[in-house]
Amino acid sequence: MKPIRLSGHAVSYMARRGFSVEEVEEAIRTAPWTPTELGRLECHKDFTFGRAWNGVVYATKRVRPIFVEDSEELVVVTVYTYYF
Question: N or C end of the chain: which has fewer CB within 10 A?
Answer without folding.
Answer: N
